[in-house]
Write a structure and sequence with these properties.
This protein is an alpha+beta fold. It has helices at residues 3-9, 32-38, 45-62, 149-161, 219-232, 237-241, 247-255, 276-283, 288-292; strands at residues 12-18, 23-30, 70-77, 81-89, 98-106, 123-130, 138-143, 165-174, 182-192, 260-262, 266-270, 301-304, 311-314. It starts with a helix and ends in a 14-residue tail after the last strand.
Length: 328
């Protein structure tokens, strides 16, 4: 394996289809994306692990949607980790990368030595799709359930979309020789083609009666789905996270009997949409008297982006609908 090959596999999503079992899927590898997300913050390890899992899910799910603008995943809970938010921005042109950003809010004194998912508690998992100006955003919500964010995402697709969907994920701190320790993540998503998914009636077999993927398929479709799942479960953690096995090689190793078809790889990068202009726009609704209440002791208005850590320092005289001129 050459360094160029390794770099080419990182921060990509590879779409595929299994023609013999009517299943589509994605393979994702994240490396620099996670570094971009996490280096601006000093998150404890359990919080970083949850963000890594959420970012990986976001990359996999975002690439399955005919997205014109933004997909967002969000977890809101009553636990030590109160919120995790991620955004996936569709490529602006052919050949351009998609962009991902993420952040979390948490109570440090409530974090425990338990597994990362245990830091969440009661709450909900949501997926929001915004196709841009002139469209109505879509939002689907499912309760926090199972033993991972991955299981929450599976429950969402079964419950809200009635699409059988499975994930196999791996993420952790890489300790490769000659490199600084950093987070890596990799995973596979498989999904039964929509036309094969019946409308399920009544409760499901999951926690609290939630629908599960297997509740949505029967007969030949169920057999095909079960076979794809058995093959998916043979994927090993090191194969998923790389860097020694190319995503295409992994797919052929797992699914060669299902006639996999591989499509163009989608690069993904860390990217934030914050800007001084957006901060100014958000404050335009306020009067000069309102703006006065927001100033610091030094007579400035400041704002920090929770996603990327960018700090904005603005002259209050230039803010709000009564602003008199440009910032000094």
């Amino acid at each position: 394996m050459t360094l160029a090959q390794k770099i080419a596999w990182d921060d990509t999503v590879l779409p595929f289809q299994l023609d013999n079992c009517d299943v589509r899927g994605r393979v994702a590898r994240l490396d620099g994306v996670l570094d971009g997300i996490l280096r601006q913050h000093n998150y404890p390890d359990p919080v970083e692990a949850l963000i890594a899992e959420m970012a990986l899910l976001t990359a996999l799910i975002g690439q399955t949607i005919s997205l014109r603008w933004k997909l967002s995943l969000q977890v809101q809970t009553k636990g030590a980790v109160r919120m995790i938010a991620t955004d996936y921005y569709a490529p602006t042109a052919d050949g351009e990368p998609a962009r991902i950003r993420a952040y979390a809010s948490f109570d440090a004194d409530r974090l425990s030595d338990d597994v990362p998912f245990a830091q969440l508690g009661e709450g909900y998992f949501a997926i929001m799709i915004d196709q841009g100006e002139g469209t109505t955003p879509y939002q689907g919500i499912t309760p926090i359930a199972g033993d991972s964010l991955m299981r929450c995402a599976e429950a969402y697709f079964a419950q809200s979309e009635q699409l059988p969907t499975r994930f196999k994920l791996s993420f952790g701190k890489s300790t490769e020789a000659g490199e600084a320790e950093h987070w890596r993540a990799g995973g596979i998503m498989i999904q039964h083609m929509p036309k094969a998914s019946p409308h399920a009636q009544g409760g499901g077999s999951g926690e609290g009666g939630l629908l599960q993927p297997e509740d949505l398929v029967e007969g030949e479709d169920g057999e095909n789905w079960g076979r794809a799942n058995v093959l998916l479960d043979t994927a090993e953690e090191l194969e998923l996270i790389g860097p020694s096995v190319a995503p295409s090689d992994l797919l052929y190793r797992l699914f060669h009997e299902e006639t996999p078809r591989i499509f163009d790889t989608q690069p993904v990068r860390f990217g934030c949409t914050c800007s001084e202009e957006r901060v100014r726009q958000s404050l335009f609704i306020y009067s000069s008297k309102d703006i006065e209440t927001m100033t610091t002791d030094e007579g400035r208005v400041t704002a920090d982006c929770q996603f990327c850590g960018q700090h904005y320092d603005l002259d209050p005289a230039t803010l709000g609908f009564e602003a008199g001129g440009d910032d000094a």
